[in-house]
Amino acid sequence: MESNQKYNALVIDDEKQMVDMLHDFLEKVNIKVTGVKDGVNALQILKKQKFDLILLDLNLPLMNGEHVMNILKGRNESTPVIVVSAFLTHERILELSKLGVKEFLAKPFEMGSLYDTVNKVCPIEYEKK
To answer: Is residue 125 in a domain?
Structure first.
């Protein structure tokens, strides 16, 4: 991928501070971000636009993250998904893995963990700005 090209990520989280923090970090690693606060709007956007990466919270208004994953699986959506949540249990991780989630990141997290997790899905290089 040329340096002037970007990956596109969809961040789905109802906490504005989390969306802003993920946006700031992802922009520094050359990933363009679209942020939404609920699963319903996310699914509408995903019908219209392709993304290289989805970061998904589980506890969302209108439609939770697990329901979003069920719908994406039904659509044969191939975009890699990273679940970012404070509510990860072993059972939830197993169920979400069956639905196609590629990686998991437990809140709260360190920036290094975020970098490593995103890098597994989309090779990135940190740009100091």
So the answer is: no
